[in-house]
Amino acid sequence: MSEQFVRTELLLGTKAMEKLQNSRVIVFGVGGVGGFVVEALARTGVGTLDIVDDDNVSVSNINRQIIATHSSVGRPKVEVMRERILDINPDCKVNVHQCFFTPETADQFNFADYDYVVDAIDTVTGKLELVVRANETHTPIICSMGAGNKLDPTRFEITDINKTSVCPLAKVMRKELKNRGIKKLKVVYSKEQPLKPLQDEAIKSKERPAATPLATRSNTAKRQTPGSTAFVPSVVGLILASEVVKDLTSN
Question: Strand 24-28 vs strand 116-119: parallel, antiparallel, or unpaired?
Answer without folding.
Answer: parallel
